[in-house]
């Protein structure tokens, strides 16, 4: 999806601890999915998730409180959200081509 040498940063943010995120990345790397090519950021208190308003209320009363809806944001260099897609259904994700078009539109 990213072009070689492209100045774009990708992050995955979850309520998982940093240790759990590292273990998850190791599990993926050991399997067919391959290594994770972006930083996995830990937000166990779901501050960032709450700030973006994407906490999935279905998990509010469970031990997994703070789990967000699947969300993708393209943020420009000034910190402005230039494009976003938030899904209520975790099986629905934007295509890489859709994200690529959003990145290209920011340039």
Give a quick summary of the entry.
By secondary structure, this protein is α+β, with helices and mostly antiparallel strands.
Description:
With 107 residues, the protein is an alpha+beta fold. Helix content is 27%, strand content 18%. It is built from 3 helices and 4 strands, in the order E-H-E-H-E-E-H. It has helices at residues 18-30, 47-51, 96-106; strands at residues 11-14, 39-42, 71-75, 81-86. The strands form 2 sheets. The protein has a two-stranded parallel ribbon with strand order 1-2. Strand 1 (11-14), helix 1 (18-30) and strand 2 (39-42) form a beta-alpha-beta unit. The longest helix has 13 residues, at 18-30. It is globular and about 40 Å long. The model has no long low-confidence stretch (mean pLDDT 91).
Strand content: 15-25%
Q: Secondary-structure element order, as H and E?
A: EHEHEEH
How much is the radius of gyration in Å? 15 Å
**Mean pLDDT level:** 91
Adjacency order of strands in the biggest sheet: 1-2
Please report the distance between the alpha carbons of the first and last residues: 16 Å
Class based on secondary structure composition and strand pairing: alpha+beta
Morphology: globular
Unreliable stretches (pLDDT < 50, length at least 5) are none
Residues in helices, as a percent range:
25-40%
Number of helices: 3
| Largest beta-sheet details | 2 strands, parallel
What is the number of beta strands? 4
Which terms would index this structure?
two-stranded antiparallel sheet, 4 strands
């Amino acid at each position: 999806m990213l072009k070689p040498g492209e100045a774009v940063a990708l992050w995955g943010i979850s309520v998982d601890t940093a240790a759990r995120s590292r273990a998850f990345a190791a599990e993926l790397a050991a399997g067919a999915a391959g290594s994770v090519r972006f930083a996995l950021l830990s937000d166990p208190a779901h501050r960032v998730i709450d700030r973006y308003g994407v906490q999935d209320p279905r998990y509010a009363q469970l031990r997994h409180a703070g789990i967000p809806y699947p969300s993708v944001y393209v943020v420009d260099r000034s910190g402005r959200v230039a494009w976003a897609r938030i899904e209520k259904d975790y099986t629905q994700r934007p295509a890489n081509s859709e994200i690529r078009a959003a990145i290209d539109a920011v340039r």
